[in-house]
Design goal:
The protein has 451 residues and is α/β, with parallel strands linked by helices. It contains nine helices and 23 strands.
């Protein structure tokens, strides 16, 4: 393994901030799963060296201009060392209304908990494994795909994840197979009272041609310990395949949640992503999707609601690399108290991507005079036969609508709740799966009731 060397980084990065993490890496590297695999050692080395060179991004970096990670540098996070075996759960989150169990994997502080997980209901040939097991049972699959579309080159947090990658979900859906049951991935942040805890879950989803699956990620927290989840998920969508990938983040307000999802969509493939963000002290969900085959389709949408001193960052990048592809983004956010939101959405249309149809919208609702949002939608078009639009709006609750409701005997809080629910419903309608949409609507209602 390469020796830690802190070199001059490009403007916007702080290599000195890498030192605590790299020192931790030197202590734990020999115990990471698959430490004897040469290709995996090489991949981790790439992550290690790139993170050593870059360090953490700062607000001088344009893509991190509105989200400051200085707090991470000050908290001296230590890597999670076990899977919280002492922690017991009465109820795990699910989108199944009847409480029935289905295929699911559970991770506590980034480590797999087999006794809480199940693969019941999966069709023959479908593999749902944790990464540590997949390195033994499906080594060729993992070696072929891991690190291929979420490369650490210019992404320091992806590099950090790559250096520390230890566990996470691996899903392989063979050609032509439809998974009827919704697959649930549960990530529980617990941490320890003694020190802030960091973990770096790494996910891999491989959907071969003409296959289909629905995946729901739950990110929740127990207690109030300070934790850092720095997750990366890679998604390969084969020709004509369809992956519906939904996520709800409800961690407690001492948590830091950083997430990078990278998808690559082949011809006539569909990648559908929706993220509902409610929790964490600071969160950033970054979604990149490359439309790499003709007539590919990607939907990248979400909703966020924050209050108090929370900070939420949604950053997306849609790359139209081939002709006749469509993309759609619909984000809506509600920001209260002194909370702050960031939306950065970029669509790029490559020279050969004629007949592109791209749509992006972000709308935010400020509920207080001290709430803030920074919105930066971008279009970068190098083809001439395209249809693309984008927009961002920020507003407050409509006084006339409030008056209309109150004039009919509805109290102020209920009227405000009705208007907020109606505002968010447009984004939630982007969720194609009814059971998931219903569950996410209940999370929205709970957030409003907690006011």
């Amino acid at each position: 393994m390469a020796t830690t060397t802190l070199t001059k980084a490009p403007r916007g990065y702080d290599p000195a901030a890498a030192k605590p993490f790299l020192e931790q890496f030197d202590r734990v590297k020999d115990g990471l799963p698959g430490a004897g695999l040469s290709w995996l050692n090489d991949l981790r080395s790439q992550g290690h060296d790139r993170f050593a060179a870059l360090g953490l991004p700062t607000v001088k970096n344009e893509s991190w201009r509105y989200t400051n990670l200085r707090a991470l540098d000050k908290l001296a996070f230590q890597p999670a060392t076990d899977a919280g075996e002492a922690v017991r759960f009465d109820v795990l989150p699910t989108v199944r209304a009847d409480g029935a169990t289905g295929p699911r994997l559970v991770f506590v502080d980034g480590r797999f908990r087999a006794e809480l997980s199940s693969t019941a209901g999966l069709p023959a040939g479908v593999e749902l494994l944790n990464l540590a097991d997949a390195l033994t049972r499906k080594p060729d699959l993992v070696a072929e795909h891991l690190g291929r579309i979420a490369a650490p080159d210019d992404q320091p947090l992806v590099a950090l994840n790559t250096a520390f990658l230890a566990d996470g979900p691996v899903l392989h859906v063979p050609r032509g197979v439809t998974v009827e049951e919704t697959i649930e991935l549960v990530f529980v942040s617990v941490g320890t009272e003694a020190q802030p805890t960091a973990f770096h879950p790494r996910g891999l989803i491989v959907a071969e041609a003409e296959s289909r699956a629905v995946i729901v990620e739950h990110h929740v927290g127990l207690g109030s310990c300070t934790t850092l989840s720095n997750g990366v998920t890679e998604v390969f969508v084969g020709a004509g395949a369809s992956i519906h990938h939904y996520k709800v983040q409800r961690e407690h307000t001492e948590a830091f949640h950083l997430s990078h999802t990278a998808a690559k969509v082949a011809g006539k493939g569909v990648y559908d992503n929706f993220i509902l963000t409610i929790g964490a002290k600071l969160s950033r969900n970054e979604v990149n999707s490359v439309l790499d085959g003709e007539e590919g389709d990607t939907h990248v949408s979400g909703a966020y609601m924050v209050r108090g001193g929370q900070h939420v960052d949604t950053t997306t990048f849609i790359d139209h690399a081939k002709p006749c592809c469509t993309s759609r983004e619909v984000y809506k956010g509600v920001i209260d108290d002194q909370a702050r939101a960031v939306f950065q959405g970029k669509i790029i249309v490559r020279p050969d991507a004629q007949k592109t149809d791209g749509y992006q919208q972000n709308r935010a609702l400020l509920l207080s005079d001290t709430a803030e949002i920074d919105a930066k939608p971008e279009l970068e078009i190098y083809a001439d036969d395209v249809k693309c639009s984008h927009g961002a709006t920020v507003g407050e609750l409509d006084d006339d609508q409030l008056f209309y409701l109150r004039a009919r005997g509805i109290d102020k809080d209920t009227a405000r709740g009705l208007l907020i629910g109606a505002f968010l419903s447009e984004a939630l309608e982007e969720i194609a799966e009814e059971s998931v949409r219903d569950a996410f609507q209940s999370y929205v209602a709970n957030w409003q009731n907690a006011r």
